[in-house]
Write a structure and sequence with these properties.
heterodimer; A: 2 domains; 4 strands; about 70% helix; globular; disordered C terminus; B: alpha/beta; six-stranded mixed β-sheet; four-stranded antiparallel β-sheet; 10 helices; about 25% strand; binds adenosine-5'-triphosphate; binds magnesium ion
Chain lengths: ~400, ~250
Amino acid sequence: MTVETVDGVVGALPGLNTRQRKKALVREAAIALGIALVLMFIIPAILTGLGQGIRVNQLGRFLALAIAALGIDLIWGFTGLLSLGHGIFFALGGYALAMHLQLQDGQIPEFFSLYGVSELPGFWQPFRSLPFTLIAVVIAPAVVAAAIGYLVFRNRIRGVYFSILTQAALIVFFNFFNGQQKLINGTNGLKTDTSTFFGLQVSDPRIQTTFYAFSILFLLGGYFLCRWLTSGRIGRVLVAIRDDEPRVRFSGYNPTGYKVFVFAVSAALAGVAGALYTVQSGIITPKAMDVAFSIEMVIWVALGGRGTLVGAILGTLIVNFARTLLSEKFPEFWLFFQGALFLIVVTVLPMGILGWLRTDGINWLRSLSGREKLITYPSLETDPDVEYERKNLGDSESDG
Amino acid sequence: MNEKILEIQNLTVRFGGFTAINNLNFSLEQGELRVVIGPNGAGKTTFMDAITGKTKPTEGQVFFKGKNLRPYAEYEISRMGIGRKFQTPRVYQKLTPRENLELSGARKKNVWESLTASSSTAERRTVVGLLETIGLAVKADIPAELLSHGEKQRLEIGMLVAQSPDLLLVDEPVAGLTDEETEKVGDLLLTLAESHSIMVIEHDMEFVRQIARQVTVLHQGSVLCEGTMDEVQNNPKVIEVYLGSEEAHAA
Ligand SMILES: Nc1ncnc2c1ncn2[C@@H]1O[C@H](COP(=O)(O)OP(=O)(O)OP(=O)(O)O)[C@@H](O)[C@H]1O
Ligand SMILES: [Mg+2]
């Protein structure tokens, strides 16, 4: 009988020696790089050739969103922290970059004159510097998340209470940004498309292509960052925290530090996503901190498959393209569709598309193509007890 | 002089108005194997909770190697060298037995250390040895959720040992095991007792007889009596509250 292992069923490859593991890693890196290159050079050419050039910009935006989804997967899929407030971090990243762009022409941004503000508020000053801005895009969300996380996790607030708190924080931030016209233009938000950047208008195709490329690069980087985190020792600890946090303490680990850390990393990813999304859509407003948007991020991950990383990316692209296409054709149906989608995921595919593919789906696909069933746990196959049970208790499936 | 590894003075734990542990005094010598018995609800698990920091004592002190444990959090107490096995086996279900043991056995447990850590050859060898000891070598790389109840019990004891604690607190290690498995766990504990101080909570009298040297009987949150198995079994108070109900004919 042929014995093969399924890649990544429980995260890392079980029972493989280091050489095989390295080979698998190299293969994964090669595939990811290949996909990135196709996205970068081939897809835009095809879309433009088909007269669908506008889709390239959409794809770029959705790839940026996928970076945020990776972060959600990291804390929800692997650590069991369901954040319903990631809009905060997304917006912080977006606003940071937008502020820098608003300051490009050397004068104070136009909207200030509407509210009779003649002097640039102090906290805008450092955003004149591009390096500062770039650091702020990552660090500001991470610091805010770490602060919120520390207070919450240290007090052992978990589960639903954590989710509610993140949502409450989101509403606080929304109201603040929405109300502060004299500081950040309130509900109108900050426009970026008319600003100049490196001597070109931000909406210029050359600049947009650059941002598109950066979205791919950061998504790739984000993916490997999460892969690295989740496949090492720390990843094991995160899964242990997800499955039985109180127990982890008795193994000598302090979950607070781990959760603060991973929440901050996830927020930083959302910040990068927010910045890249903002410059490709031309504006950031407090709407990025709508409750619905933060919940949507969770839906992307749920659909693609929690704890799979690739699923987070796939889910984001599927939902967002579905929304775009559907709302072009039937604008009034999208919300129903989204609700239905979520219900289907919860009831039929609780582990999402990728979760299903990795368990039942793979056998289903193989049976379609007439190939033998894949054995998930080769070591069980050689276990004498299992062998005995199989002979004597009839043929039962080797996995659920 | 033999320093006491664990010393408990006037320990009281209250939940609201209910007193689960009532002015309890207790001590354990270095290297001792002690069995704690007592009827359901006697406060045995709560006693372990108070030692390991899960529940803070309402009154009284717990000293481990002469150190008052009150200010420390669970993870700090664990790192000082107290390992604990729970009443219902609690292993990390989605991790494999190997990963469960590696996690428990890691010497460095801070975030930054975990970021870069990979198991040293020595650590990995220890894990392989442990897998042999607890009889899970063939199932080392399947998720622990697929293990049987008995295997999970053994895995959790393995996780304890991996932590290389000085004091092991073991809550009902043979609940739900077959006679054969019970004996295996008993032998395992006896082997461990050669190099560790151990406190075992158990209901299974056969098992207690197999491993016990000194027995402490808890009743309504206090120590009812202490002594060898024979002494305890013949103590009229014990027969009345505990053995009398379950084991009258055996005694
Ligand atoms: N967190 C809690 N809040 C309120 N009461 C509690 C709590 N924990 C334990 N108790 C009560 O304290 C008493 C002692 O419980 P404990 O679990 O220590 O008993 P036990 O001796 O371990 O019993 P068993 O043999 O059934 O495991 C019980 O009456 C229980 O209901
Ligand atoms: Mg108990």
